[in-house]
């Protein structure tokens, strides 16, 4: 399977949403915040994810996708993954550094409101939040904020990896690393630190360590599960 790493476009959003939904189906945070599978509405969740990705594009966030480039009719060996060209098999969404001392820009402020409005429309269209446990969602947000306040000591801010996910068929093939490198290399050139958090300790902490991250905080969350917070210092060329 040949893969290209390219910036996310509007046209990629449906395939990117499908990739993220599948990549996070067994994620501890996802299972905790959508705690009743009988109430989970996958279409509502897809609409919300699509709106978040639109928000990310509009805010100028660095979002990359890994896309299959092989033509659909190309000869394939039996053990090769059979996916049509253009299928998204990995997504990495980062936020650019935001110095805490600087105010939020007007355009991001406007996009925040637009996202809230779109979510309201989704609530109406799908008759609710599709099984999201809102109480747990806010507990998690609070835990995240506490972590950021404690860890984000660099006054210039951090490149923050908000989402990274690779389809199960494409894992362990270097796709996640290539996706992450798009921003990690930029961070290195700019001498900026990176930050990410994962609710899955194994194998993710080890995977991110191989990318140059180190575990700086492990937070025990209220009901179950932990939040693994990792930072990466910029690498300077020898
Ligand atoms: C975490 C994830 C994004 C990593 O992507 P990936 O494409 O599988 O990772 P890569 O193949 O690029 O591997 C990166 C490094 O980790 C190592 N690695 C990969 N899988 C590993 C595993 N299961 N155990 C130990 N090391 C592993 C690789 O050998 C590689 O190291 P190297 O560069 O020194 O050779 C992917 O596994 C995933 O989507 N998981 C499910 C969703 C998720 O948990 N997302 C993250 C939320 S924070």
Write the SSE topology.
Blueprint: E1 3-7, H1 13-23, H2 28-33, H3 42-58, E2 63-68, E3 88-95, H4 106-125, H5 134-151, E4 159-166, H6 175-190, E5 194-198, H7 204-210, E6 214-220, E7 226-232
Parallel strand pairs: 4-5
Antiparallel strand pairs: 1-2, 2-3, 3-4, 5-7, 6-7
Helix pairs in contact: 1-3, 3-4
The protein binds coenzyme A (COA).
Give keywords.
238 residues, alpha+beta, Aminopeptidase, 7 strands, binds coenzyme A, N-acetyltransferase domain-containing protein, GNAT_dom, acyltransferase activity, transferring groups other than amino-acyl groups, Acyl_CoA_acyltransferase, Trichothecene_AcTrans
Brief synopsis:
The chain is an alpha+beta fold. It has helices at 13-23, 28-33, 42-58, 106-125, 134-151, 175-190, 204-210, and strands spanning 3-7, 63-68, 88-95, 159-166, 194-198, 214-220, 226-232.
């Amino acid at each position: 399977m040949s893969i290209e790493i390219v910036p996310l476009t509007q046209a990629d959003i449906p395939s990117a949403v499908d990739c993220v939904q599948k990549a996070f189906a067994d994620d501890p945070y996802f299972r905790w915040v959508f705690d009743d599978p009988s109430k989970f509405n996958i279409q509502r969740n897809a609409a919300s994810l699509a709106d978040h990705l639109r928000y990310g594009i509009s805010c100028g966030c660095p979002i990359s996708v890994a896309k299959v480039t092989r033509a659909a009719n190309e000869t394939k060996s039996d053990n090769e993954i059979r996916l049509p060209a253009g299928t998204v098999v990995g997504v990495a969404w980062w936020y650019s550094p935001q110095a805490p001392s600087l105010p939020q820009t007007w355009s991001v402020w406007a996009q925040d409101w637009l996202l809230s409005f779109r979510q309201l429309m989704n609530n109406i269209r799908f008759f609710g939040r599709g099984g999201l446990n809102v109480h747990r969602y806010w507990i998690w947000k609070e835990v995240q904020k506490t972590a950021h306040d404690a860890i984000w000591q660099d006054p210039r801010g951090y490149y923050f990896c908000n989402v990274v996910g690779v389809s199960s068929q494409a894992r362990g093939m270097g796709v996640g690393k290539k996706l992450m490198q798009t921003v990690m290399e930029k961070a290195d050139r700019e001498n900026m630190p990176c930050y990410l958090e994962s609710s899955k300790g194994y194998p993710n902490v080890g995977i991110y360590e191989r990318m140059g991250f180190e575990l700086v905080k492990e937070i025990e969350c209220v009901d179950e599960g932990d939040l693994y917070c990792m930072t990466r210092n910029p690498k300077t060329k020898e």
